[in-house]
Design brief:
heterodimer, A: 725 residues, B: 8 helices, 6% helix
Chain lengths: 725, 979
């Protein structure tokens, strides 16, 4: 028994020894998980190119491979914070007058205070996202070459993959532009560099500018024609937009203006077949991916399939708080974070601005009263009295009879009164009562000849400012309470007159712009497009009118209920007006597919920006059509109901403000303020700038973010941006 | 290697067969107690200079075949002084052993054993009698405070784990946990899902000894896993003897929270709200009319019962021990439950006159857990005390809930803590077993040579479910498909094959011991998780594995029985690293000098030994990433797709990787002195060490653009630990039937980061770490060069004349006229500067009394509960809910949270009495024969803590105090019965 045990043991050991000898080979492992593939295997599947390309785009939207959280792309910061768009938004908006945030997350308030340093984790995360995106693009460009396709026997994919490559280069150029814009002198890597331990060189702003410009020019012909690619993928118009943005800011980056180039590329976009979405708000709703004629390049989100705690989830939720109803935004709750400053609120005109104020203090003229049943037979009442402006006993006035009424004419008492005995059109002192059917009348009395006339009148507004032009008028209605004819209508910049009974026989204009009306007077000027309420006051001795602009620029989307305009404590959501621009509801008011994760896409580039860039480039000396520029800007203003402007109004400062009104919270503001010299060092102060409640200047070096300390520690070739050491 | 194996097999095949052919002279005799004359069963008889020997049988007699050249026999028995008897011509040697101090104890080291007096490394053993007492379900707790240089921080949960640090942490991003070797099997430190503690497998009652290997000369034999020290656990084995021994131990324990966070009571809170908020403010109207003490609502008296049964004995030469244990423990947090059944079998037969010793062990457990949501702990502190726990009108399970005007739960408001406990059903079941087989064979033709084979298979399978009904407010979804219904399972497998040869030869007072071996270990992990939520059912499964393949060897050389030299070398290969970097070589050397050795009765100085050690150990435990050096692509889940036109694509992501990743290396220098004084009534050691870790495996920023991630695990940075340890064991009093023994150990450790980046950028602040609650992404600690790891990084608070901190006023430390992050400074760190463990045992006849405790000095804590809660802005949230604040708010008087004020960095130094135990032993109650006894005892665990720290408990691993599971105060009653 003992011997056989030994034998068995020997056999066991013998067997084990064979296991043991092969054991050193065991150290060569490959992943067992099917979701993980080694780099040399993954591209054997033709679909992989498209899936990796999708990751390059998704890099702008989501935080990792799991959605909404898990398997994050970058580390060192909370995953929800780590998305490209969320960081880009914070860097471009919280640093400006357009946004503040309530939360106490890390050093987030450095943004509002403009006192960040190289340790700021949000700036670091933005930088890391940019370079993550660049590294992904480089990896794709290394793996998707024609040579490698041939090696893998996938030559048939070459044409399709060539487009993918151009898109990858576009995305890389986009991120390099962000790097240039925010960090200026940055490390430079291309697909020629591999993955691994090396120290990238720092590239100068001028050279990086040249690189991006060259890339744009090379990929331009390789990309799909405008509006021809699948939704959310880049086409030629996307790269033109990038070019326009690069050139518009070229002077900031390199000291050399490139405004003609900017105008050229903006014009390409303008002529590419895009059109303004008729309703501004629709650009920012859950269904903004559907039939969108304006957006050129979106970052796409989806409530069920593209989930993240950053991106639009952040932009929509953070803006809701206080007395706002989350349900109205298609959300399950607000995060009570982001609002705006009073400086930005001030970019919009007040509601209901008066264009022409009525003149109720006209002179006094001899009066002829019109006592009657309609006013209680009071011969002393001046209501409805007629005036003799020439003091020549020839009287005229407008009287409204609410119901059929008898009346007479009298001079202050029954001692002198006139009626028309026999209804023969001739007045007799103490004559019989006159009769009027209900309505509005012009009364003319000539006591010299004892004749009178009673003309029923209805008023209309006509002119180039009105929808009917000079051909047909817009009927006004009589407001008995106010004693005025009124009309509320959308007008455009132009001229108008009042006319009676759809004809020119009786019409009023305003000669001398004194708010007093004259028969056949000069046309009344309507200064800009917008909604107006116009009132015609004829129940007095001098006829007057008012023009009130109801201009409520419909881009001005504030929630003010329960919010204060000014901010003394940034951590209180109820301080500062809330902004209701982005919502997870569709244009019919229905909530998106998921109340936590919005369907709303982010408009990274849209036509309105091209219009404004074109106008600005020309104002800055670029070659182009000034009238077209004005027309484009006025298109935006018309859509907003904000009233159009004249060429004299189209100044650079106007452009800066107009960009704020049109493009706020769309990640343009920091770049714009820097370009206008108003960001850190400029004279423009807004609440919280520089850490002061009233705003304070900070040194100009804050126009560029610091190279994060983490990268300076990792890469000895980098030199910090000036001012941060 | 292949040749080596083949050669081994050849040798084995040759030697095993003819082994019985040799014949020798036989010596026999009886071993008895010198005083009583009773025979001693199971006494050891060893042929001097060899490992050959036998043990006495039930009659105390033995019989031993003497190898040629044998000069003497060494007789030893637990609790008795050993005796050495020269072999004369007689074939019969009877011996009477004298009871005495056990100094000749055998110490388990890696791949072998060594006599304590011959140990060259820093090795310390803790046996059953020294273990901590109380309601201890985790093996780690037995060890707390017992060994100099070893800190154990338990987590307070039933069956919970504990963080063990041996001589400080040697790593920043890789693991700082020691390697556990259970009966010769190195186990994985990666916990299996659903398992609370990596050592749950072992019933504390089955543990015989912990042996802590502290310095590199002792640990280097475990090479790449030894940087953080090694803890070898041996379990109890059967003993020879015909008689079956039956043991039962049982206890019942009652636990209550020792402390609560002091917050405003409902009435105080009403006053506070009405005072702080003007008329018309929404806050007062939000208050309810209840008076709820939320902390009382979430805690309970935790009851534990523990039963253990063991049967041991021997059938012929076949010792066995079978044990069965059952533990049922309720946490003090309601719904927290731990339920464990353990079983163990140890068979230790010997064959061929003990030349072949087999050890077969099976350890297993089934562990059922219910996890309470620990968010309730912090939640109970915050929740508005004027609101009721339950609200009959509430559609959310009948629990009071903060709602929006439309009746939906307020998504930002805190969840009702009781609802969090009662509506979240988080359960797991873990089945784990570890089988090991070892065979140790002494060659008949060459008795100096031994071959040892060790095989083991360790499998843990954890599975669990998390279910929250859809009417739970904290999992609400407006679409009606809220709730949680997730499940997961994970299987971990660890297979081990080890083989070594040991050659041992003594020539007079010179001895040589040479060992060489091979080790192969495979770690495999399989995950599955299933989530069923508003996005539908999503399942995900994956598997991963890694291998460690090693060669190792050790040389022990003893000169004149006075100078001892140990040389160790291990080569480890890890599949985690690329081919070029995967092999690491870990050498160690130790020298010991027995300066003085005199065991004569009455001498003042008995022993003095100097030890010098040097060694390099490695680290490769970088969590669950088993493929960090390979270029891989990872697919996305359906919730992270991207839209291309009308189609949504699952994306493919290239993963970051580091093909240059390699071992982290720690070089340790150790100087130690072991001493024994006053007739062995005072003994201990003094040690000084320095540990330098180079090529830290560090999760660091990559140069931007150079990798497919922004952070990567790479070998960058250096770190140092320097320390000093003293242990003193004494028997101050010894009477006829009474004895008082005490043990004290003292440790001082300084940790310093010496390099962190690839470049020496003087402006580089360091790596932020230590996430806190409050805001998102706020870190309170930093790893910086020249400072201890995880130093707190804060603003220096300015105080007013009354000592109240002035809100938002900090010292402008850099004098630039403004307060910015440039004014942050590094202040203290969570690790104690020094710590002490102490134990006292007193026996008087059958009565025993013992206590043990610990003290930490200079451990600092970020009081996150206070920083987050002691401010007024937390009272009312603009989304319309209220929260409670701490009662001491007036002493801070902040309006908004000032997380980075150094006011919240507080000294956590403490003195804690871990337990006080009294017992009485009814000896021989069941039979007149010796050996049976009944002991009853009572233990009070955690009776007091002396500290100035204002938070719940000053023992906070990592130094950030939030949602800390409060350590309970426990009363335990138990009995041990041996038949």
């Amino acid at each position: 028994m003992a011997f056989s045990s030994i034998k068995k043991l020997s056999l066991i050991i013998l067997g084990l020894s064979f296991v043991a000898t092969s054991c050193f080979k065991d150290l060569d492992t490959t992943p067992l998980d099917e979701d993980i593939q080694t780099a040399d295997v993954v591209y054997n599947s033709p679909g992989a190119y498209r899936q990796v390309l999708a990751k390059l785009y998704a890099g702008l939207a989501v935080s990792g491979q799991e959605g909404p959280a898990g398997l994050p792309d970058i580390s060192g910061i909370d995953e929800g914070f780590s998305t490209y768009l969320r960081q880009y938004w914070k860097a471009q908006e919280l640093t400006t007058d357009e946004a503040v945030i309530a939360w106490n997350d890390g050093n987030i308030h450095d943004f509002e205070d403009q006192d960040w340093n190289a340790q700021n984790e949000f700036i670091t995360a933005m930088y890391n996202r940019i370079y993550y995106q660049i590294a992904l693009c480089n990896e794709f460009l290394r793996e998707a070459t024609d040579a490698k396709l041939d090696d893998r026997g996938q030559g048939n994919l070459k044409a399709e993959v060539a487009t993918y490559r151009a898109e990858a280069r576009f995305l890389r150029a986009l991120s390099y532009w962000h790097a240039l814009d925010m960090f200026r002198n940055v490390p430079f890597v291309t697909e020629a560099d591999g993955v691994g331990a090396f120290f990238p060189e720092q590239i100068s702003a001028a050279n990086l500018f040249n690189f991006i410009e060259a890339e744009i020019k090379e990929i331009e012909p390789q990309l799909v024609a405008p509006r021809q690619n699948s939704y959310a993928r880049a086409d030629q118009a996307a790269v033109w937009m990038l070019a326009a943005k690069l050139y518009l800011n070229a002077e900031v980056y390199t000291g050399q203006g490139k405004y003609t180039e900017c105008a050229t590329y903006a014009k390409k976009v303008i002529d590419a077949g895009y059109s303004l979405e008729p309703t501004y708000q629709h650009l920012f709703l859950a269904d903004n991916n559907i039939d969108n004629s304006e957006v050129i390049f979106p970052v796409a989100f989806d409530g069920t399939r593209t989930q993240t705690w950053g991106g639009m989830t952040f932009i929509t939720h953070a803006a809701v708080g206080g007395s706002m109803s989350p349900a109205a935004f298609g959300l399950d709750g607000g995060w009570g974070g982001t609002r705006t400053t009073s400086a930005f609120v001030g970019k919009f005109p007040e509601v209901g601005g008066t264009v022409v104020a009525p003149d109720f203090n006209s002179g006094s003229y001899p009066l002829l009263n019109v006592p009657g049943a309609y006013q209680g037979w009071d011969p002393a009442s001046n209501a409805g009295a007629l005036a003799s402006k020439g003091s020549n006993e020839v009287y005229e006035g407008f009287t409204y009879f609410a119901e059929a009424s008898q009346f007479k004419f009298a001079k202050g008492s029954w001692d002198t009164n006139w009626g028309d005995t026999g209804a023969d059109g001739t007045l007799e002192p103490g004559g019989e009562n006159l009769n009027a059917a209900p309505g509005f009348y012009r009364l003319n009395v000539d006591l010299n000849t004892l004749t009178y006339s009673l003309t029923p009148i209805s008023w209309g507004l006509i002119g180039s400012a009105t929808a009917g032009g000079w051909d047909s008028d817009q009927n006004m209605t009589y407001d008995a309470t106010e004693g005025a004819w009124t009309i509320t209508a959308d007008l455009v910049a132009g001229e108008a007159k009042f006319r009676a009974n759809d004809g020119w026989d009786i019409n009023f204009g305003d000669t001398g712009k004194d708010a007093l009306l004259e028969y056949g007077g000069d046309n009344i000027v309507i200064p800009g497009a917008g909604n107006y309420t116009i009132k015609l006051y004829l129940n007095r001795q001098d006829y007057t009118y008012s023009v009130v602009s109801n201009v409520n620029d419909n881009r001005k989307m504030f929630h003010t209920d329960g919010q204060t305009l000014e901010i003394t404590d940034v951590s209180q959501f109820t301080q500062g007006y809330a902004i209701t621009k982005f919502k997870n509801v569709d244009r019919n008011g229905n909530a998106g597919s998921n109340l936590t994760f919005p369907d709303t896409d982010f408009p990274m580039f849209r036509l309105a920006d091209a219009y404004l860039m074109y106008a600005e480039a020309i104002l800055r000396g670029g070659t182009g059509s000034a009238s077209e520029a004005l027309g484009s800007v006025n298109q935006l203003r018309a859509r907003a109901g904000a009233g159009t402007i004249s060429s004299g109004d189209l100044t650079l400062n106007f452009i800066l403000d107009e960009r704020a009104r049109e493009l706020y919270w769309e990640c343009h503001r920091r770049t714009d303020l820097v370009r206008f010299g108003q960001f850190s060092n400029g004279t423009y102060l807004w609440p919280l700038k520089g850490g002061s409640l009233t705003g304070a200047q900070v040194p100009a070096f804050f126009n560029v973010f610091p190279i994060p300390a983490s990268d300076l520690g990792a890469n000895p070739k980098l030199v910090q941006n000036p001012g941060y050491n | 290697m292949r040749q080596f194996i083949n050669l081994t097999v050849l040798i084995l095949a040759v030697v095993l067969g003819p082994s019985q052919l040799f014949g020798q002279r036989t010596i026999a005799g009886v071993v008895t107690d010198a005083v009583s004359g009773e025979t001693l069963i199971g006494a050891n008889i060893l042929v001097k200079g060899t490992s050959e020997g036998t043990i006495t049988d039930i009659d105390g007699s033995y019989s031993l075949k003497l190898p040629t050249g044998a000069t003497a026999l060494i007789f030893s028995y637990t609790g008795y002084n050993s005796q050495e008897i020269a072999v004369g011509s007689s074939d019969k040697i009877d011996i009477r052993l004298v009871a005495g101090q056990v100094l000749d104890e055998i110490v388990v080291i890696g791949y072998g054993t060594v006599k304590r007096e011959d140990a060259t490394g820093s090795v310390q053993t803790v046996g059953t009698s020294s273990f901590n007492k109380g309601a201890l379900t985790s093996p780690q707790e037995l060890l707390a405070g017992k060994v100099a240089g070893v800190s154990v921080t338990t987590d307070g949960t039933p069956g919970g784990g504990a963080a063990i640090r041996i001589r400080g942490g040697s790593s920043l991003s890789a693991s700082n946990d020691p390697l556990f070797v259970i009966d010769g099997v190195p186990v994985s430190n990666d916990n299996t899902s659903g398992q609370r503690n990596i050592l749950s497998l072992i019933n504390p009652n089955d543990i015989e000894t912990f042996t802590v290997l502290k310095d590199a000369s002792a640990t280097a034999i475990y090479g790449s896993r030894a940087s953080n020290g090694v803890i070898i656990i041996t379990t109890k084995k059967g003993k020879l003897g015909k008689k079956i021994r039956l043991g039962y131990s049982g206890s019942v324990a009652f636990s209550n929270p020792a402390n609560q966070v002091d917050v405003f009571s409902a009435d105080e809170y009403r006053t506070l709200i009405n005072t702080r908020f003007p008329d018309g403010h929404p806050a007062p109207s939000l208050m309810g009319s209840a008076n709820t003490d939320w902390q009382s609502e979430i805690y309970q008296t935790g009851i534990m019962q523990d039963h253990n049964l063991n049967i041991s004995g021997g059938i012929g030469s076949f010792p066995y021990r079978v044990s069965l244990g059952f533990t049922d423990q309720d946490g003090i947090l309601k719904t927290d439950e731990f339920n464990r059944l353990t079983y163990g079998i140890n068979l230790t037969p010997s064959f061929f006159d003990n030349r072949l010793q087999i050890n077969v062990g099976l350890k297993g457990m089934r562990n059922d857990n219910h996890f309470a949501d620990r968010g309730a702990i912090g939640g109970a502190v915050h929740f508005d005390p004027t609101q009721p726990v339950r609200d009959p009108e509430s559609p959310y399970g009948g629990f009071y809930t903060w709602t929006q005007p439309n009746g939906n739960p307020n998504t930002l408001s805190p969840a009702n803590p009781v609802a969090l406990l009662e509506m979240r059903d988080d359960e797991s079941t873990v089945n784990r077993y570890l089988v090991n087989f070892s065979a140790d064979y002494r060659f008949a033709f060459l008795p100096e040579l031994r071959a040892n084979l060790n095989l083991a298979y360790d499998q843990a399978k954890g599975e669990g479910t998390i279910v929250v009904p859809d009417n739970a407010a904290f999992a609400f979804n407006e679409n009606g498909n809220g709730g949680v219904n997730n499940s997961y399972n994970q299987t971990d497998r660890n297979e081990l094959l080890e083989f070594y040869l040991n050659y041992s030869k003594t020539l007079g007072r010179t001895a040589l011991d040479l060992m060489g071996g091979y080790s192969w270990q495979h770690f495999y992990r399989e995950n599955f998780d299933r989530r069923d939520d508003e996005n539908g059912i999503r399942e995900n499964s994956n598997a991963s594995e890694f291998y460690l393949v090693s060669l190792f060897g050790r040389l022990n050389y003893t000169l004149y029985d006075r100078f001892l030299i140990t040389l160790t070398l291990r080569q480890d290969g890890s599949s985690r690293f690329s081919k070029d970097n995967r092999n690491g070589l870990f050498p160690a050397a130790a020298f010991a000098w027995k300066i003085y050795d005199n065991r004569a009765e009455g001498s003042t100085l008995n022993n003095l030994k100097l030890r010098l050690g040097y060694g390099v150990t490695g680290q490769q435990a970088i969590g669950n990433n088993y493929y960090p050096s390979q270029a891989l692509y990872l697919g996305s889940l359906t919730t992270a797709q991207y839209q291309f036109g009308n189609e949504f694509l699952e994306t493919l992501r290239p993963e970051g990787y580091n093909s240059n990743l390699k071992w982290e290396e720690t070089t340790t220098y150790n100087i130690g002195i072991d001493y024994t004084l006053f007739n062995s009534r005072l003994y201990g050691s003094v040690e000084v060490y320095q540990r330098e870790t180079n090529d830290l495996i560090n999760f660091i920023p990559v140069p931007a653009g150079t990798n497919l991630t922004n952070f990567i695990t790479a070998n960058v940075g250096d770190l140092e630990n320097r320390g000093f340890e003293i242990s003193v064991n004494a028997i101050p009093y010894k009477g006829a039937n009474s004895e008082w023994s005490v043990g004290v150990n003292y440790t001082q450790n300084v940790n310093e980061i010496t390099r962190l980046t690839a470049t020496d950028d003087p402006n580089y602040q360091g790596v932020a770490t230590g996430g806190i609650s409050g805001g998102v992404g706020n870190n309170i600690q930093i790893h910086s060069v020249g400072f201890p790891a995880s130093s707190f990084f804060v603003f220096e608070q300015v105080y007013d004349a009354n000592g109240i901190p002035v809100e938002n006023l900090y010292v402008d430390r850099n004098g630039d006229g403004q307060i910015s992050t440039a004014d942050l400074y590094r202040l203290e760190n969570p690790a104690p500067d020094a710590f002490i463990g102490f134990t006292s045992n007193f026996n008087y006849g059958n009565f025993d009394f013992s206590f043990a405790g610990r003290a930490n000095m200079g451990n600092y804590i970020y009081n996150n509960n206070q920083s987050n809660l002691s401010n007024y802005s937390g009272l009312y949230a603009s989304t319309n809910y209220l929260q409670n604040v701490q009662a001491n708010i007036a002493s801070v008087d902040f309006t908004t949270p000032r997380y980075f004020s150094d006011h919240f960095i507080q000294n956590g130094s403490f003195l804690r009495l871990d337990h006080v135990t009294v017992g009485y032993n009814f000896a021989n109650v069941f039979s007149k024969e010796g050996g049976s006894n009944l002991r009853v005892y009572a233990t009070m665990q955690n009776p007091f803590v002396i500290t100035n720290y204002e938070g719940l408990d000053p023992e906070v691993f990592g130094g950030i105090d939030n949602n800390l599971y409060p350590r309970s105060r426990t009363f335990l009653f138990g009995l041990n019965l041996n038949l």
